[in-house]
Design brief:
Chain lengths: ~140, ~70
Amino acid sequence: MIRLQKTDYLQILSHARACLPEEACGLLAGRCEGEEARVEAVYLLENADHSPTHFTIAPQEQLKAILDMRARGLELLGNWHSHPETPSRPSAEDVRLALDPTASYLILSLAENEPVLRSFRIMDGRAEQEELQIEE
Amino acid sequence: MKILISGKPAEAEDGITILQLMEREQVETPQYVTVAVNNAFIPMDRYACYALQEGDAVEFLYYTGGGCDGAEQ
């Protein structure tokens, strides 16, 4: 299970809407306690692809974020990206490029009036939804 | 010699190259890994000849990206 503060969720949502029609993306950092991960920092990063259907986090931005989370005593929990026009589930390409089986992959769909955010674990070419709790 | 790998202290043989370190550390999918030494990115074609030095800080950055125009799971 992964826990996300509502303020962090709203940051992600706001950034994703601001990036439309392109996909938006970023990293998530926090702490793990057993099977539970708690997000304590959300990184809103540039989509180097500047595309409505693809995203790439530029290594320079990735490195900067990782050094920042390390300085704050946080660990990388996963990443997030938006799907402007498609549902909140991993595409075949998302699965193919998911290189870390320990990471949470959050996908925010803006395809409908109400945004939908879901989290997935991806391993051996298979994606499984994990519980995501957004806390006040 | 002493180096840092992803912020953690590690021992490495003198003159070890980035490529040798990646093999030793069993870096998976190296084609999707970008390497930074002391916060400077090293071109992939130099991994085999770039010898690390005492105190170097090495980061292995896995490609983070995807897309939504393919078939969905």
